[in-house]
Design brief:
The chain is of the alpha+beta class. It is built from five helices and two strands, in the order H-H-H-H-E-E-H. It has helices at about 5-10, 15-25, 30-35, 40-55, 75-80; strands at about 55-60, 65-70. Helix 3 (about 30-35) crosses helix 4 (about 40-55).
Length: about 100
């Protein structure tokens, strides 16, 4: 996934960034996230699904509940991709 797409997804929703920051504290359920951030449980689930699709969080089932965790080096990998060489010819591909 291109870093620009991930950055766009994160920048388009400050709440999504808050969810990710909360997950760096440890595994959380959608209900716990909703309560902590004062958002609807469905909204928390939507943000978690988006973050999961971006590869920034993982989900683990525990009985009927799911717990989400931030991918430890997911954010680091994103930063490394962004910091890549400015003259990388592959970086120009999404401009064509």
């Amino acid at each position: 996934m291109f870093a620009s797409h991930i950055l766009h997804q994160m920048a388009s929703s400050p709440a999504r960034s808050r969810v990710l920051r909360l997950l760096f504290e440890g595994p959380q359920s959608p209900g716990t996230i909703a309560a902590a951030l004062n958002i609807a449980p469905g909204t928390a689930s939507n943000h978690l699904a988006a973050l999961h699709g971006l590869g920034l969080v993982t989900a683990e089932a525990c009985g009927r509940r799911r717990f989400y965790s931030a991918v430890p080096n997911g954010a680091q990998a994103l930063l490394e991709e962004i910091r890549g060489p400015a003259n990388d010819p592959a970086a120009d591909l999404d401009r064509r």
